[in-house]
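Hi,

I'm pasting everything inline rather than attaching a file, because the server keeps stripping attachments. The sequence lines come first, and each chain or strand is labelled.
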Amino acid sequence: MDEQLLAEAFVEVADTLVDDFDLLEFLHRVTVRCADVLSVSAAGLLLSDQRGALRMIAASSEQTRLLELLEIQTDEGPCPDCFHSGKPVAVPDLSTAGDRWPVFAAQAREIGFASVHAVPMRLRGDVIGALNLFDTRPGNLSPGTLQLGQALAAVATIALMQARAIRHRDTLAEQLQTALNSRIIIEQAKGVIAERRGVDMAASFALLRKNARDHNRRLSDLARAVVEGTEVI
Amino acid sequence: MNEDGVVRIWTEVARESKGESVTLAHVCAAAVTLVGVNGVGVTVRVGSSAWATMHATDETASTLEELQVTVGQGPCVDAFSDGGPVLAADLTAREYQLRWPAFAPGALGAGARAIFAVPLQLGAIRWGAMDLYRSVPGGLDPDRLADALAFAECVNILLLDGAGDSAEPTRQHTDRTAHQAEVHQATGMLVVQLGVSAETAFARLRGYAYAHDRKLGEVARDVVARRLRFDTESPDGGGPP
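And the predicted assembly:
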């Protein structure tokens, strides 16, 4: 674990959680930081849709295969297990997980992952989502690394609470739905940009992010404008 | 949502429709029963600034919708513009009196004490909102909120079909691929291929899937992989690249 990276991550958090911050961009950065700081290959965040299932909200890479692997967990995988039990789930060797999650394990291995961990996103007594960590090397994450994973999952939870407070929402339930819908807007915008520019979905997301940064816009606001055709990328 | 929840919702809707084709009235009546509220209203945006009430289950619900349309404020308006549910457990609270000065007193006068609004939306596609009211104060517990969100999804499908697609409304609830990211990505691609709104693009994608008896996610995956385009001349809207 690199302490310099860790320090940078928390400075970024403190700098970002101000009024009018961009929740989706922030959650994306949390996943990127997770992969860096925890030295894993990829990280993803899933949120409760409040109807008993988890939905993907952010990932360290927008590579289609990774997003699919996160999406599979609407049905099965370590994240739903973690979400329902409220406890971390460790799978040091994915080759032994075929009985437990046939679809998830097969796809994870096909992408080249050898191990996976999930830690819950907790808010007081409730679990509102899960942080998913993938690695191409087999083995358990150290207790210290897992604890740090928990801390970063808590940061994502705080961001959701902060966004709720800024929007004067009364409940987290209201904010969760807004966040999940923002993710759908981003997917729609990725499609618009991919078709117009003739690029794949990962490149399309990169273009969307770059434009949002360059023009100081929130990802979801810019994405909506792109889908509605009032802005062209 | 879990399978039981979906089945429960559609069983209640089917009970209300008594074998006829499902309408907004059936869905709203079922929502009154399952969510445990006194009344439900559905109001949609027409054009860039006007609102139209599509259905209200009783006189109070009708008054609540009319009031919001008239004064341009209230939970339905907020749910639409913010993109998330609005859960007002007690309209007498100072918070809501301040938030909706023109709506809250009138709503109380009409007999509503608690009001919950759920947006009718799919990403950037926005129709309006569904309001559910109670004559007594109190919040919406998580299970009831889950039901309300599921009913909003039913209403979305009805509104979408009303916009020109003829696929049967009960079809989507059995299609577990309908929530996949590719479906939304493909919708965005069709916006460009067809030069239409996201709503029309999504309707075309669904229409194609059902006409070919395929899952929405499968068709979407073909679009994203550029194996299927919709801008070629073809009677059913899709064609080979």
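Chain A has nine helices and five strands.

If the labels don't parse on your end, tell me and I'll reformat.
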